[in-house]
Specification:
single chain, about 375 residues, alpha+beta, Rossmann fold, OB fold (Dihydrolipoamide Acetyltransferase, E2P), 2 domains, 6-stranded mixed sheet, 5-stranded antiparallel sheet, 9 helices, 20 strands, elongated, binds adenosine-5'-triphosphate, Mo/tungstate-bd_C_term_dom
């Protein structure tokens, strides 16, 4: 069992900086949990506290059923894979992988068996006699993973392990890590600032900002039901569009009034607004680029095309409305030119509304 429990964990560095604030998180056995957030949000500090490389200022850290606050890193049955791989340059791949096992006095034949198995899983069995400098970035990354696998840890901790790879290799390694997780059936905790990596790899995602957990959920829920404005803006590329709006009640429905234009909310959303006492309140309306469509009718928002970015079958269309820029994702078959006036409509089933003061989602 390698369930992790983080209870009210805080980290205050010696200079007084409060980097991690009241983090309360359960990571289930065999889960692939991603800690994601912008630079400086406290994700590496959290991971290092799990590893035991950083002292906890307050709170309780449990691995399995054991309180590990004061347990040394080597006794936590975890393995950590770093961004820079940290391989020993003068040792062969085999010796790099064997190093920790020799220190633990594991018999030679078992070391050999474990390395053989891990090398096959990672497809590096042809490289065992090479030195790290004779390997590509992706191969080095595999060796770093191999060195972790042979220790048979209960928990794998990874800190941006793919950030030194080029874009193509990164995508390939993402798929390999998912496969590896399925094959090893152990708990993975993975730190990244890249929301695409988080969305594609995690069984669950923990979004952090300013040392505080913003939301913990599966990727679909994080994307479709962001808990607040920060999560809504951080997850998704291109970013969700945000527009100031006022909610008014008329003609038996609820309308979001945006700069004089009106958008009728779905009946389900209207009843949530009424029960939450949001009628006549100023809110922030969020709409993802794929939920804005160009329409032929005359009842849409009149906007001006700025730039189009061809992505393949889709294009990102940047347009301005009342002096502010927004992005829509449209079918590339539609021909648009700079400055062209078009009408767009928001999919009112898929809009998001946020409280202007608390920035929490209200739908
Ligand atoms: P990045 O993606 O840039 O690595 P992160 O989310 O992993 O960011 P952390 O490395 O956990 O962030 O750092 C969190 C905050 O704590 C940052 O503001 C950082 O400057 C600060 N910090 C990190 N280490 C120390 C330290 N030893 N002393 C003081 N402050 C620190």
């Amino acid at each position: 069992m390698a369930k992790l429990e983080l209870r009210n964990i805080n980290k205050i560095y010696e200079n007084g900086f409060h980097a991690v604030k009241d983090v309360d998180l359960d990571i289930e056995d065999k889960e692939f949990m991603i800690l994601v957030g912008p630079s400086g949000c406290g994700k590496t500090t959290t991971l290092r506290m799990i590893a035991g490389l950083e002292e906890i200022s307050s709170g309780d850290m449990k691995i399995g059923d054991h309180l590990v606050n004061d347990v040394a890193p080597k006794d936590r049955n975890i393995a950590m894979v770093f961004q820079n791989y940290a391989l020993y340059p003068h040792m062969s791949v085999y010796d790099n992988m064997a190093f920790g096992l020799k220190l633990s006095k594991i018999p030679k034949t078992e070391i050999h068996e474990r390395i053989d198995k891990a090398a096959k899983i990672l497809d590096i069995d042809q490289l065992l006699t090479r030195k790290p400098k004779q390997l590509s970035g992706g191969q080095r990354q595999r060796v770093a993973l191999g060195r972790a696998i042979v220790r048979k840890p209960e928990v794998f901790l990874m800190d941006e392990p793919l950030s030194n790879l080029d874009a193509k290799l990164r995508i390939q390694m993402r798929a390999e890590l998912i496969r590896l997780h399925n094959e090893l059936r152990t708990t993975f905790v993975y730190v990244t600032h890249d929301q695409t990596e988080a969305m594609t790899m995690g069984t669950r995602i923990c979004v952090m900002n300013n040392g505080i957990i913003q939301q913990v959920s599966d990727p679909k829920t994080i994307y479709n039901k962001p808990a607040n404005l920060f999560v809504a803006g951080f997850i998704g590329a291109p970013q969700m569009n945000f527009i100031d709006a006022k909610l008014v009640e008329k003609e038996g429905g609820i309308f979001a009034v945006i700069e004089g234009s009106e958008l009728r909310l779905s009946d389900e959303n209207a009843s949530k607004i009424k029960s939450g006492n949001y009628v006549n309140k100023e809110v922030i309306l969020g709409v993802r680029p794929e939920d804005i469509k160009i329409i032929d009718a005359d009842n849409g928002l009149k906007v001006k095309v700025e730039v189009t970015e061809l992505l393949g079958s889709d294009s990102n269309v940047y347009f301005t409305f009342k002096g502010k820029q927004y992005i829509a994702k449209e079918d590339s078959a539609i021909n648009l030119s700079y400055g062209q006036e078009i009408q767009v409509a928001f999919n009112n089933e898929r809009i998001h509304l946020f409280d202007k003061e608390s920035e929490q989602s209200i739908l």
